[in-house]
């Protein structure tokens, strides 16, 4: 048992970081969220797809009505090749609805962030701090100290790194591991993620022939794109196979964007003639990033633990990245809940778990998530490989297997029991909103029970 009160320092105020804020607020635990950007809610970034596993958690937090108002459901992807020829719709999303009770929904990052922010109590919103670029994380026997570039410091019990693929917390965790005896056994690689694809995303007004709710993919050698159309704006993500895979990060300029458009601007976005170049010309926002892939061997060290893209990075083809980050928070919160319950059952309701309890919770969290995340990463990589026709096998699968709805339904049903084992918060009461053919293995806690 620890005599010191528990406080979590969450680094990263994106969707996963704000989900962590909700988890801590619902547990009546003290926390602070440190975000490097100038505001918590920014009108920046591409759209996100919320799958049933993520939607169910947000529903448990009471956010589903707001999510439904700000998002569009998707029942299928229309698929064409680089010449605009139909290669068959895919109904993965229809089978998600049948199996798990909800269509995936496409939502802008801004709208999701606004909903997560506004869904917190006022006192919890005050703990979300922008303009806090973390520069150092130090751990000790009694807790952690986090230092920011502006000179401010924050002390707590644990640090949760929710700061993305280029995580400062992950780098600090590696340094801490290497500074200890036999620490190299607990240290991750300095550059753990491999980039095989780069991406350009473009936001533009939804105009004919695109209609609100449209979801489309263009497939072919070395490049694929996904379109998600909202009521007012649409977003395309274009994924280009790089000449050589790299573990180095890249920063892209407007000149890089123009070169990208010169290579791929002719590709159709949707049947009807609109091209990538058309979207770029009428863009309201655009950007380029690398699509890192990989999974860390160690998700925690000492009092530091990683969630979401800081621990594992997906290509976006299956929309699984943000959703798995949300579920990471759930799994971590449940293990901390177990640690609190064990101590308080033995010592009383004012007791707090000590370092050994916390480290055990971190280990249990990774064990609960690792295999599922690894499988999801492989699935996302295969999906991107198929859409970019990376070899003859992928091209055959894309054109002749994924166009057969009986086979797609078979694969979706085969995977459904795994999806149904996705956890929800054990200590948050709510009502089940998603009921499909496959019952959820972990029910939402009913009110009063």
From TrEMBL:
UniProt entry tagged with the keyword Nucleotide-binding: no
Domain FAD-binding intervals: 7-341
Pfam families, A to Z: FAD_binding_3
Keywords associated with the record: FAD, Flavoprotein, Oxidoreductase
Organism domain of life: Eukaryota
Cofactor entry: FAD
InterPro entries (UniProt xref): FAD-bd, FAD/NAD-bd_sf, FAD_mOase_fung
Record family assignment: Belongs to the paxM FAD-dependent monooxygenase family.
Name this protein carries in UniProt: FAD-binding domain-containing protein
Native species: Lasiosphaeria hispida
């Amino acid at each position: 048992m620890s005599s010191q009160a528990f406080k979590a320092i969450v680094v990263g105020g994106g969707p996963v970081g704000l989900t962590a804020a909700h988890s801590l607020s619902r547990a009546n635990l003290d926390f602070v969220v440190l975000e490097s950007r100038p505001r918590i809610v920014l009108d920046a970034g591409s759209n996100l797809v919320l799958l049933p596993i993520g939607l169910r958690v947000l529903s448990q937090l009471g956010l589903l009505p707001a999510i439904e108002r700000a998002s569009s459901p998707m029942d299928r992807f229309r698929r064409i090749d680089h010449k605009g020829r139909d290669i068959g719709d895919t109904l993965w999303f229809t089978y998600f609805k049948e199996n798990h009770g909800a269509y995936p929904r496409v939502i802008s990052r801004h709208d999701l962030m606004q909903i997560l922010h506004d869904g917190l109590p006022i006192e919890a919103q005050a703990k979300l701090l922008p303009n806090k670029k973390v520069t150092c994380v130090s751990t000790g026997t009694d807790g952690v100290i986090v230092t920011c570039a502006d000179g401010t410091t924050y002390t707590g019990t644990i640090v949760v790194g929710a700061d993305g693929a280029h995580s400062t917390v992950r780098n600090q965790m590696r340094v801490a591991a290497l500074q200890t005896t036999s620490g190299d056994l607990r240290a991750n690689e300095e550059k753990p993620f491999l980039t095989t694809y780069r991406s350009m995303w473009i936001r533009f007004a939804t105009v004919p022939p695109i209609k609100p709710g449209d979801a489309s993919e263009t497939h072919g050698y070395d490049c694929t794109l996904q379109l998600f159309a909202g009521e007012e704006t649409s977003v395309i993500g274009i994924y280009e196979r790089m000449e050589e895979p790299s573990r180095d990060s890249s920063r892209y300029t407007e000149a890089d964007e123009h070169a990208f458009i010169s290579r791929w601007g002719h590709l159709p976005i949707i049947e009807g003639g609109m091209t990538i170049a058309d979207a770029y010309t009428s863009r309201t926002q655009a950007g380029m990033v690398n699509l890192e892939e990989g999974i860390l061997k160690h998700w925690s060290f000492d009092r530091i633990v990683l969630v979401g893209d800081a621990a594992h990075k997906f290509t976006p083809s299956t929309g699984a990245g943000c959703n798995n980050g949300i579920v990471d928070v759930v799994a971590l919160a449940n293990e901390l809940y177990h640690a609190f319950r064990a101590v308080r059952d033995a010592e009383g309701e004012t007791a707090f778990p000590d370092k050994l309890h916390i480290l055990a919770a971190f280990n249990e969290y990774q064990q609960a998530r690792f295999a599922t995340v690894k499988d999801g990463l492989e699935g996302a990589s295969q999906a991107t490989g198929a859409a970019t026709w990376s070899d003859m096998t992928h091209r055959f699968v894309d054109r002749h297997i994924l166009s057969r709805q009986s086979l797609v339904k078979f694969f979706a049903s085969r995977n459904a029991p795994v999806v149904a084992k996705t956890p929800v918060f054990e200590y948050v009461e709510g009502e089940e909103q998603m009921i499909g053919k496959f019952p959820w293995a972990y029910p939402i806690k009913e009110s009063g029970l």
